[in-house]
Amino acid sequence: MTDLSTQALPGQAAAGTPATQVAGVGDFIQLMKPRVMSLVVFTGLVGMLVAPGYLHPLLAGVAILCIAVGAGASGAINMWYDRDIDAVMRRTLQRPIVAGRVQPEEALTFGVALALGSVVIMALAVNFAAAALLALTIAFYVFVYTMWLKRRTPQNIVIGGAAGAFPPMIGWAAVTGDVGLLPVLLFAIIFFWTPPHFWALALYRSGDYERAGVPMLPNVAGPKETQRQILLYTLVLLPVTLAPWFLGLLGPVYGVTALALDLLFVLGAVRLIRQSTDRNAMRLFGFSILYLFLMFAMVLVDRGLAAI
């Protein structure tokens, strides 16, 4: 494990950066990890739109806002807790707490307020089932992934990835008040997609994780084993993503597209094994984002065509 005692302390600015600056609105938005939030919101919206029943557009907007704010709360609390390791990782040096633009206590207060507000509003305006799932999502990301798993096991992203898989279930529950088979399968798609997605990035950023002492798979098991695990998970995704088609929950438009995307994902993993380069790792990481977006977009397209 890397000794962090000689590095920037929690809440301190990176070297050469003023210890205290004036926080702007953009800094608090950055605390919420907007890029991560965008996928969370999109998958939650898909769960809502394919759910049977009707939800008033105003309440639907409130539900999506709560999902977004809940995701942002998780990101803010994560940055508060991880400010020590963020200070020694190149890709996180400019995060608001590390750079000294937001104080740690401000970030924690902001995150907790967002978490409580999003859950309470979801419960009062939409329903308690959706609120309970949102609360579970936030708690899982903060306590299970961030505080328990991330610094203790290379399986951190495997188990912790469940937090990012809940939004389709939350969106579905916002409409129906319960959870059906399709949102569970959508949960499974995100759950099994997360490890190869994140490990591709971890291969490229393994030096960062080594300096921070975070036991990511490439640093613990090595690049070759990580590449093998990425291929294994892309293969597991094949039956998982095709299950909604096989079970008659979605039609052939989704099924054929899902199969094509799966094969491209597998081919990308094979190419990474054959040519183990940073470029191929980042190409696979970039494709994985497109993969998830297209997979969920086709859920909407397929359901829309079925309704015509």
Automatic annotation (TrEMBL):
UniProt topology in membrane: Multi-pass membrane protein
EC identifiers of the protein: 2.5.1.141
Keywords: Cell membrane, Heme biosynthesis, Membrane, Transferase, Transmembrane, Transmembrane helix
Main subcellular location of this protein, as a coarse class: membrane
Domain of life: Bacteria
One Gene Ontology CC term in the entry: plasma membrane
TM spans (from-to): 36-55, 61-81, 107-125, 131-149, 156-175, 181-204, 230-247, 253-272, 284-301
Cell location: Cell membrane
Pathway entry: Porphyrin-containing compound metabolism; heme O biosynthesis; heme O from protoheme: step 1/1
Swiss-Prot/TrEMBL catalytic activity: heme b + (2E,6E)-farnesyl diphosphate + H2O = Fe(II)-heme o + diphosphate
MF terms in GO: protoheme IX farnesyltransferase activity
Gene Ontology BP terms: heme O biosynthetic process
Family designation: Belongs to the UbiA prenyltransferase family. Protoheme IX farnesyltransferase subfamily.
Additional notes on this entry: Carbon 2 of the heme B porphyrin ring is defined according to the Fischer nomenclature.
The protein's role, per its UniProt record: Converts heme B (protoheme IX) to heme O by substitution of the vinyl group on carbon 2 of heme B porphyrin ring with a hydroxyethyl farnesyl side group.
Stated name of the protein: Protoheme IX farnesyltransferase
Species per Swiss-Prot/TrEMBL record: Stella humosa
UniProt lineage: Bacteria, Pseudomonadati, Pseudomonadota, Alphaproteobacteria, Rhodospirillales
Gene from which this protein is expressed: ctaB
